[in-house]
Design a protein that fits this description.
The structure is a homodimer of 133-residue chains. Chain A contains three helices and five strands, in the order αβββαββα. Chain A is α+β, with helices and mostly antiparallel strands and 133 residues long.
Chain lengths: 133, 133
């Protein structure tokens, strides 16, 4: 079996680029600087379902992206989550949170996403490329 | 500075025991098998604020506990989250989720916890000791 992206992740998040293990994707939500890492491995639901070296590699990719996102977004707090109750394909959320933001201090998951105009979206995808460097 | 537990974590979660880096604590919530790992390091908010070897150690402790919790609870999905919007001291949530549970398929964070009778609570603390082995 080879890696195939879940169609809901494909629809909800634009590809920014790839890291050694994972796709880095930007969620289509105007409210937050919110990315997901999706390891390019087939049939993995839980983080611990990955082979042990991949578990560590995903951890390292999460740490690197989280730290860059905090700096880039001047965030109050980074939220990291691996839930997967709806989309079972393993994906890790990394979200820049600011005091007083649309969901503060609650979680962002389970709240309706806010669409963006296409030009705004294209700009944000461009802006977030720096997370890959 | 030495490690001091945030009083809200002390109140909301009972100590099950310690791993090399972290306290393992059980949340006082009747709805879920829900634990938190709290690294015993002072002044750490973000996972990437830990020294790099501690970052990996925390990751390994999260993986080990998550895998045991999934087996113990026969969970549909494990949810892992490091939020910290309210309690800033670094702590990682690991929650056994079941299809149709009280928050399914949403996150558990930000919803009111359900208290337990003291005997029920003591039993659960006993039952969960296996996560340390």
């Amino acid at each position: 079996m080879h890696f195939e992206l879940d169609p809901r992740l494909e629809k909800d998040a634009a590809l920014l680029g790839t890291l050694p293990l994972s796709q880095l994707r930007l969620m289509r939500d105007a409210r937050f600087a919110w990315v997901v890492l999706v390891p390019m491995r087939a049939n993995v639901c839980e983080w611990f379902d990955l082979a042990p070296p991949d578990q560590i590699q995903l951890h390292q990719e999460v740490m690197a992206v989280a730290q860059k996102l905090k700096t880039l977004s001047v965030a109050s707090k980074i939220n990291i989550g691996a839930l997967g109750n709806i989309v079972r394909q393993l994906h890790v959320h990394i979200i820049a949170r600011h005091e007083g933001d649309a969901c503060w201090p609650g979680p962002v998951w389970g709240t309706p996403m806010h669409a963006m105009a296409p030009h705004e979206w294209a700009e944000r995808v461009q802006h977030m490329q720096v997370l890959l460097r």
